Amino acid sequence: MALGASAGIGLGLGSISTSALARAAKLHVQAPYWYRFNVGEAEITVVSDGWQMLGDPSNSFLGVPKDEVRKELTDNFMNPSDMNIELNSFVVNSNGKMVLFDTGLGTSKMFGPKGGLLAKSLSDAGIKREDIDAVVISHGHIDHIGGIVDESGALMYPNAQVYMSQADFDYWTDERQMDSPWKKAFIIHARKNLLPVRDRLIFFKDEQEFLPGITAIAAPGHTLGHTMFNVESNGQSFFFVGDVSHHSVLLIENPRMEFLYDTDARQAVKTRLKMLSFLAENRIPILAYHFAWPGYGHFVKQGEGFRYLPAPMNMNL
Ligand SMILES: [Zn+2]
Description:
There is one protein chain. The protein is built from eight helices and 16 strands. With 317 residues, it is an alpha+beta fold. It has a single domain (31-310), classed as Ribonuclease Z/Hydroxyacylglutathione hydrolase-like (Metallo-beta-lactamase, Chain A, 4-Layer Sandwich). The protein has a seven-stranded mixed sheet with strand order 1-2-4-5-6-7-8. Strands 9-10-11-12-14-15-16 form a seven-stranded mixed sheet. A two-stranded antiparallel sheet has the order 3-13. The longest helix is centred in the C-terminal third of the chain and has 17 residues, at 265-281. 44% of the residues are buried. Residues 141, 143-144, 243, 289-290 line the site of zinc ion (ZN). The site of zinc ion has 6 residues, from helix 5.
């Protein structure tokens, strides 16, 4: 017996006029793009800037045959030919301070029209931009520094000190580094966003607790000054891993894979292997900037590489 026929008979669908049930207009609106959880006494709110469109992933994930990139994605039920990655900025409210980590693409449309939502996500989450005390930047790339100023150049977070590595400030504001079209676009946008806050920039050092409970961990390779952060409160902690990996499967199952926008891809691989091993062995929760929303979970060892296990969303604060 055909399943459709038996299901139809069993549910008595023949007697219901389906057209009468479908009159309400479709809503075409998604759930709000923020998500909140606690770590110790710290309240964490992931506030999305939207998506970054990468197109064919085999053009961005390198160092292995293109077929391997497509196979890993297909095996994991992901689109092998067109990739969007998330932009998971987040706010930590702890020790009387509101700290925003990374600022999205801002006004840049270099990676498509779906970024630049951070101000809306913050407002939807009930967070006022003027209440942000500190903006912490993982590295100087366009999708992390992009939302420090608005279209007119005015500061989006007028009361915030800005923290980043000196290596990345120096490199990504240096016009001599404009040696390819993409780097030119990155540097123009970095200069637009970073130069207006030059007088309120504080450079952190490796392993420095530069804000209460927030420690910088140098993770160079993707950029020279790329940094991860340990966020700790009341004996609990998680790591913001920034761009140690741009995808929850690629670069994780095979951490030796490389990424198009790496400044030093070999060093990035070394850093990735070291950091993923450390985080897996110590069972430390992580938040990843580009992983599927909201990007919070754990790494475990798997074969020659690792596996990312997303944490269930907890709607009970
Ligand atoms: Zn990025």
